[in-house]
Design brief:
The chain is mainly alpha-helical. It has seven helices and no strands.
Length: 136
């Protein structure tokens, strides 16, 4: 287990998933199955905490993007979000999720780095949702 999982490590892990994220984005059905698996996993995490609490809105953005309901977002944002989601769902991440107390720290770090990169686009998406009566 890596002892020093910092922002640099989190960004490196996020970028590792970009290729797989692009592949998933090209297969809408597989992406939807992936999002469903992720939502199922989120229900098993004891406490999401504020670092992982942004995951449902990220999932919602990706869903609306692939349904072509919301496309006013850079493709790089969508890829970064999918990459972060891949990391969270992956059973083989830096700190195994099963380790009590620390298992989700690396997931939270990757999501936090992603959030820093995409926050303004996600905030714009949230405004769009409000204006269009969309709910998660």
């Amino acid at each position: 287990m890596e002892k020093n999982f910092d922002d640099k490590s989190a960004l490196r892990e996020l970028k590792k998933g970009y290729g797989k994220a692009k592949t998933l984005l090209d297969d809408v059905d597989e992406l939807e199955r992936f999002l469903q698996r992720l939502e199922k996993k989120l229900k098993t995490i004891p406490a999401l905490g504020d670092k992982l609490a942004v995951l449902p809105i990220m999932i919602s953005l990706v869903r609306n993007y692939i349904k072509k309901e919301y496309t006013d977002v850079p493709i790089g944002t969508v890829i970064a979000i999918i990459s972060a989601l891949i990391y969270v769902l992956s059973p083989a991440d830096i700190i195994p999720d099963g380790i009590l107390g620390v298992g989700y720290l690396d997931d939270a770090a990757v999501v936090t780095i992603c959030w820093k990169l995409v926050k303004s686009d996600v905030e714009e998406y949230k405004r769009w949702r409000q204006m269009n009566g969309k709910v998660i």
